[in-house]
Task: structure prediction
Amino acid sequence: LKPFFLVFEEHKPVASQSEQAPAGHIPPALDMADAPPLHGEDPEEIVEIEGVTSDTYTQIASQRAAERKARETAEDRRDDHKPKFIQPHKEKRFKIYMKYEGRKGPPAWIKSRLPRHGGYEDGPSIAIKKMFVGFYNRLREMLSVHSVHLRSETGIAIPDEDAISAYVGYGGMIYVVDGSSPGKLPEWQGGFLGG
Result:
């Protein structure tokens, strides 16, 4: 057997610390990301947004918890059970719930079904954030894309560059919270040396 070595290299920043953009600054490539369209000819290419109450997702979450407990007790008894998957079928739209409870305005809850082509759940999350801010600001402008960021149901901050499908599953909750979006940290590159 030949020995091998694992080498980690950190990405070098392109700009010096003094030249880097301030927190909450959106790079030009991401700033051009559009929110999903609300109107159009093809109903499969537009987003559906419904205003919901605060109890809507609470009921869904408690139902999922009850199903999980029933499945776990069936597994403990070694009974035959069929799990209920919450993954979307290819013909369904990606559905998410979004909730804002911040200091900049009144609380809001929405349920949205994204276009079927999958470009918004797998694309930069800033498009989803723009969709929510646009819906929230219909009557009076209170929120800005630069003043809020997205968090998953478990509290993990979602950078503007990342896809929401990496943080939230079908039918999951995304929290819109006050504060600028977190910057994306440099990724580690690993390499193998040896033969």
